[in-house]
């Protein structure tokens, strides 16, 4: 069995889970590869879609919704001549309700409905002063939380290999909880896309924010925003901890 896992990761959590899932598949004797949707060439994407038996998609949750970059990727997927089984996973801090099932809204009709899905609780990576959320840099606490994810990865992988449906985020309660967050998030999404601030007193013009932004939201000399932010906070997290 061959599995392809396509992921978008804003600051590392989803990449880590994608790799853990891939490694678990390999331990079970399956062939699994992960692909970063930001870097995979179009010809390699097409090849991966056709040569693999099962397709997986992973992303972090923003306001109980998919990141804009992941939405673009799913909508633009090339049509498949024969639908293939699909699984979806998302990473979240507290809860997303229907964080995985909302992916079905963007998958092309030539793809099979989601048959397996899972939500993974990961350490909070939002540590900006304007949003007061619990944050820790304690590596032991982070390691313990990440270690717990394997208790959800193993059942997911086994369900896929045994072709037994296993879905999280598809119940009526999950849908209701997700819509509570997603409705206001989508309503104000465009309004706040250019509200990111740049502290020019501290900016050293390293251009790291320009390089890591998945939406090409920054221009150089001087650093300016283009209004295409999708709130992943990669620019803030990576620039703050690197400079």
What is the terminal-to-terminal distance?
44 Å
**Which strand order spans the largest sheet, edge to edge or round the barrel?**
2-1-3-4-5
Helix content: 25-40%
Tell me the structural class.
alpha/beta
Please state the overall shape, judged from the principal axes of the Cα atoms. Answer: globular
* Overall pLDDT confidence: 91
Classify the beta-strand content into a percent band: 15-25%
Please work out how many helical segments DSSP would assign.
8
Number of domains: 2
Order of helices and strands: EHEHEHEEHHHHEEH
The first-level CATH class of the largest domain is given as Alpha Beta
Low-confidence stretches: none
Strand and helix layout:
Blueprint: E1 2-7, H1 13-27, E2 31-36, H2 42-51, E3 54-60, H3 68-75, E4 86-92, E5 114-121, H4 139-148, H5 150-161, H6 172-188, H7 208-212, E6 218-219, E7 224-225, H8 234-242
Parallel strand pairs: 1-2, 1-3, 3-4, 4-5
Antiparallel strand pairs: 6-7
Features:
7 strands; 35% helix; Rossmann fold; 5-stranded parallel sheet; alpha/beta; 16% strand; 243 residues
